[in-house]
Specification:
Largest sheet: none
Organism: Micromonospora aurantiaca
CATH topology: Non-ribosomal Peptide Synthetase Peptidyl Carrier Protein, Chain A
Protein name: Acyl carrier protein
Number of domains: 1
Oligomer: single chain
Radius of gyration: 12 Å
CATH architecture: Orthogonal Bundle
Order of helices and strands: HHH
Number of strands: 0
Strand content: under 5%
Number of helices: 3
Amino acid sequence: MPIQESELIDTVKRVLADVTHDDAVLDMDLDTQLREDLGIDSMTSLTFLMALEDAVDGFFVDATTLEAEHFQTIGSIYEYVRTQLSTAKIA
């Protein structure tokens, strides 16, 4: 059964909260800026992506589709994960 939108958003936030050691992320909006608001740097981004791969069944990072714009906000990384899951189901 496909993951529901709210469940996927919650998972993205939970993984981000775990990686940043900041449970306040769980209550943040989708427009929260990863770099500016949460201080996410390139190393934390990699850790976050690997943790997302572990947490979301069927999600794999595709280096050919991952762009800097995907790391703007919580919502943009959610959209990337959702798109990758949709693409994986079609393939």
